[in-house]
Amino acid sequence: MAPYYVLVGRLQQALSKCVRRYHVTPSQSQRAKVAMSQFEPSDYVNYELLEKNINIVRKRLDRPLTLSEKIVYGHLDDPVKQEIERGKTYLRLRPDRVAMQDATAQMAMLQFISSGLPRVAVPSTIHCDHLIEAQQGGEKDLRRAKDINQEVYNFLATAGAKYGVGFWKPGSGIIHQIILENYSYPGVMIIGTDSHTPNGGGLGGICIGVGGADAVDVMAGIPWELKCPKVIGVKLTGKLSGWTSPKDVILKVAGILTVKGGTGAIIEYHGPGVDSISCTGMATICNMGAEIGATTSIFPYNHRMKTYLSKTRRADIGNLAEQFQEHLKPDPGCSYDQLVEINLNELKPLINGPFTPDLAHTVEEIGSVAEKKGWPLDIRVGLIGSCTNSSYEDMGRSTAVAKQALAHGVKCKSQFTITPGSEQIRATIERDGYAQVLRDVGGVVLANACGPCIGQWDRKDTKKGEKNTIVTSYNRNFTGRNDANPETHAFVTSPEIVTALSLAGTLKFNPEVDYLTGADGKKFKLEAPDADELPKLEFDPGQDTYQYPPKDGSNQHVDVSLTSQRLQLLEPFDKWDGKDLEDMLILIKVKGKCTTDHISAAGPWLKFRGHLDNISNNLLIGAINIENDKANSVRNALTQEFGPVPDTARYYKKHGVNWVVVGDENYGEGSSREHAALEPRHLGGRAIIVKSFARIHETNLKKQGLLPLTFADPADYDKIHPVDKLSIVGLKDFAPGKPLKCIIKHPNGSQETIMLNHTFNESQIEWFQAGSALNRMKELQKH
């Protein structure tokens, strides 16, 4: 692997010549000059480079390639010399573009500002979707969000203008729908600062969720590092029909692979069943692949993608993809690390939950299961939309269900909300009458934003601690995720099933066999919904909500007030002092599941995503302490008093005491939010020791100069007690593949030694030694 200073040297040369090496210029393109998007007319789709790199790698490996491998290896920085071994080597890649949602973009742009670089090196965009709270309805909620978030929106807009980043204003829609409509295409590689970036795989792209520091690397022109993914094949046969939807495919896969079964792997769908799924349906499946820990998910290029590209004003990209389609499909005879087969003819409508997205049930059985488990049967709220299921087809299928109910004088028994995925979807479903039908059946159309899916929901119908059930077409249903109530039992399913269950008002309803009662007292059964995949007319784009960056933003001023409670310029983290980490206190030994929601909660905390010190007041407040089975209650080892986790961490930091977190399996699953890594670093943490990590979180921890370590023997988790002190030794000889020793010091004076594994490579060790990846970049710029 090239030393980090070599990579930064290449960056400096590229910037000095104002060259975008990896985008085709007009003189280079031989077959066609096709812009990557209407918003970047001078940046071209580069299938020729993709083809060249694929051929180099195929010849080197001397075997057929999966589709995932073609696109990933097709973006290698050095396809001739790059070591390639699935699941082992680190790849240096050149993504085509970067996408950032507003909650994570704040920290990403603050880090980019700290880098001192004048302009981003690849096309990049900011999308305002996370800071809009659902309260009364779309227009009112949007106005309120623009008012209370004005400082943050102004920062993002001006930072975008200064550094060459496109800005999608609040009300534009959810980042992943915007990416699908405008930026994703077959063969593209996109990294996004949101875990559901894989949504773009529905258009045949490799789209990967990352933390903000990774995005900064790519925006700076530095090759991006990714451990060479394994590839899990999912072969689809048969055909979707009736009440079964694309959502049921991923709900089934989640039930098979579980929340960590896809870790370190790309899920590659293939087989004859693929052609029965719409392009937006494929996006739904790829989107929720994040819930099984997958690096990303992807479908092969087909006519459904070409049709969608044409309908979204990108027919030229579709035509170009046709010419290169052999590189946008897997090679015959390619091999997968694991193979899952699903017959769509046999697939039943599913509903997963509560509290975890991999607990799969058929809709037919969920009522009886809920009765046995003591889960509330009455459905308080049904919620459709979100980045996972807010396409025109999704809205159409839900509308088809609602129309049948209205024809019999029936409205929803549960509260019912609709979240359009984008301004284009909102405007089109308004024009075509879908939105009005959904209102007539009792629905409230929310803003084009994430809303309740990420906890941006001012819910009034229940009190915290009140046991209740909601059903959603969202992707994630961790404890307290949607409304901060740990007793809310959230189930995820398709939009049409949510609509049907909201009409019935209970989990004990299977629309395939059960009946509703009409206003006239007569029984009727809902027919399986049918709807157009795409509108018969062209999409209505709605309001223009995009801000182009100026060609030269050097004179643009970016405001960050020193007294702001929303934004805070970053100070560099301290460098490693060259010594072992001795006698660290255990801030918390976490019991069970610990997602990024547990580590850095969203909801009301989103307003502090640009202010590291303020948001650090939510550090690990949702994690369960094994010592007392409570959340946000840990023993202060210096005072022996119990108190909130953030307060205890600040106390240790004030007194110069290093601390460590001990955790369980798949630590950090869920969102890509790097605040879950920044916060422990900011408050004095040095290491996180667990049984296993989720991919994005492990990388985020490394980027911020922390040590993510795993037990060589998972049973050693039980040897550590919250009152122990831990020392990590061997850091002077820190090297790739070499385990570290951990000495456990018990209060009675006894000691024992365990071994800890890590996945650091040479560049990542340099990040640790420098204090963070950003520190290392700045060090090398000085040289």
Automatic annotation (TrEMBL):
Annotated Aconitase/3-isopropylmalate dehydratase large subunit alpha/beta/alpha domain residues: 69-505
Pfam families, per the entry: Aconitase, Aconitase_C
Localization: Mitochondrion
GO terms under biological process: tricarboxylic acid cycle
Record keyword rRNA processing present: no
Residue ranges of domain Aconitase A/isopropylmalate dehydratase small subunit swivel in the record: 586-713
InterPro entries, per the entry: Acnase/IPM_dHydase_lsu_aba_1/3 (IPR015931), Acoase/IPM_deHydtase_lsu_aba (IPR001030), Aconitase/3IPM_dehydase_swvl (IPR015928), Aconitase/IPM_isomerase (IPR050926), Aconitase_4Fe-4S_BS (IPR018136), Aconitase_4Fe-4S_dom (IPR036008), Aconitase_dom2 (IPR015932), Aconitase_mito-like (IPR006248)
Names of required cofactors: [4Fe-4S] cluster
Note on how the cofactor is bound: Binds 1 [4Fe-4S] cluster per subunit.
A single Gene Ontology CC term: cytosol
Protein keywords: 4Fe-4S, Iron, Iron-sulfur, Lyase, Metal-binding, Mitochondrion, Transit peptide, Tricarboxylic acid cycle
Predominant subcellular localization, coarse grouping: mitochondrion
Segments for region (Disordered): 534-554
Pathway(s) it belongs to: Carbohydrate metabolism; tricarboxylic acid cycle; isocitrate from oxaloacetate: step 2/2
Domain of life (superkingdom): Eukaryota
Reaction(s) the record says it catalyses: citrate = D-threo-isocitrate
GO molecular function terms noted in the UniProt entry: 4 iron, 4 sulfur cluster binding; aconitate hydratase activity; metal ion binding
Its biological purpose: Catalyzes the isomerization of citrate to isocitrate via cis-aconitate.
Similarity comment: Belongs to the aconitase/IPM isomerase family.
Protein name: Aconitate hydratase, mitochondrial
Organism: Phrynocephalus forsythii
Taxonomic lineage of the native organism: Eukaryota, Metazoa, Chordata, Craniata, Vertebrata
